[in-house]
Amino acid sequence: MRHGEVENPGGVLYGRRAGYHLSELGRKMADRVAEHLAHRDLTHVVASPLERAQETAAPVARSHALEVATDERLIEAANVFEGKTFGVGDGALRRPGNWRHLTNPFRPSWGEPYAEQVARMQAALFAARDAARGHEALAVSHQLPIWVVRSFVEKRRLWHDPRKRQCTLASLTTFTFQGDRIVSVGYTEPARDLVPPHLLAGAKPVKGAKGFGA
Predict the structure, then answer these.
(1) pTM (2 decimals)?
(2) Burial (CB count within 10 angstroms: exposed 0-12, middle 13-18, buried 19+), residue 30
(3) What is the pLDDT of residue 212?
(4) Torsion angle in degrees (nearest 10) through CA of 90, 93, 94, 98
(5) 169-194 burial, b for 16+ CB within 10 Å, e for fewer?
């Protein structure tokens, strides 16, 4: 699961920074997903150590009388632009000081390599599978790591257009195992009606909109 909306009025690319919590809308998203999963056979709930992920996992864990476990491998991807604003149309990518970080979109040069994200996310995915073997687990993470590990499992290239990620706020990307093998990948958006339209996958950019941070 991707976490819900974050309180971030300045539109900062918060990345791995501490202190970014769910907004009121984000809490509603988390509650909606908890309702959606209320009757699922969940025996393990785990989350990234960042506040927004822990807060998103909490309602689901409560509804199943579970504690939220923490797995550092579910954390957001590292990014050199953390702490900066990247609103649509603000010219951030035209600033010469940023160009040295934009030389290789395939690795990518501005942050944690995609291959490293896949390795740690796969390890976290298999650990959650083992913790709930024979049942279901919920792991709460962040948009980019979720999308990259899904792309790897579905045999797509890892570099991509961020606007086309199918991983909206509070969405569920489901990996189904048969033994030790992933046999299918599913995707649902239980809180879709709560997500601002410009943040949905494939939405057209809105000038001035602050849609970054995952």
Answers:
(1) 0.89
(2) buried
(3) 45
(4) 130
(5) bbbbbebeeeeeeeeeeeeebbbeeb
